[in-house]
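Chapter summary example.
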Amino acid sequence: MKRLLSIAILLSAGFANAIAQDATIFPRGEKAANVHHVGNVWLVELAEADSTFSYSTAQASFDAGARLDWHQHPGGQILLITDGVGYYQEKGKPKLIVRKGDVVKCPAGLPHWHGATQNSGVTYLATSPVQKGKTVWLQRVTDQEWEAPASNFNTNTEKEILKLSKDKWQWMADKNVDKLSNFFHDKSEFVHMGGSWGKARELEIIKSGGIHYKKADVHEASVQLIGNTAILLNRITLLAVVGGNEVTNPFMVTEVYIKENNEWKLGSLSFTKLLTPGNNN
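The structure predicted for these 281 residues follows.
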């Protein structure tokens, strides 16, 4: 299982790079002086507070390894993670991993810090009410705090991916090509024992019954999140009709999901036939 996951991670990295779009929306801004942070950080003020709007909005971009000092906001702050992978930690709580698409609410007056991970930069939009005062800077984040183990900020993501995978098997069994067409990424790839092909051919095969995925019994599943990519490994027993013949085979199925426009799409589906039956729970 671990070996297959390692292979899947390497393959998905290349796939993600191939379909990734330029995530930059706003200019990067100016490199900030290292006064209240460690590493390289770029800031750009997007909208200043005025007599009508009592909050400001800025973009911050961190190189891998960069992080802010501990600090607090008298009026609180909201972070919209727009790119990369980073850390967020509130005083007295575990450190969390944040990713593109996450929304973080920093409570008013609560000491916290945020920044990039060791291997990935992070970019976010920050909006803060200013009527109660500016950021209050505290002590520097220690190496021990920054290197401590971290948990996923959005633990529901794994459940979301697992549910999507389950729904996909049902759509394939029902030959619901309308659902699948929206679910499959336009550049998706499908790897079978008899060959590999893209989205259009996979949909046609499902629609025509060339391969009818009648029933997939899932015995084991795990999800690995890497930025905006999710890799799911399924150990299944698949009952299918191939060329008019009903067959049952054990497979390890690797599914790669890509998050685009806040929606998960299936980027790759690969079947690896197992030498041992897949119904050992």
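To summarize the output: The radius of gyration is 23 Å.
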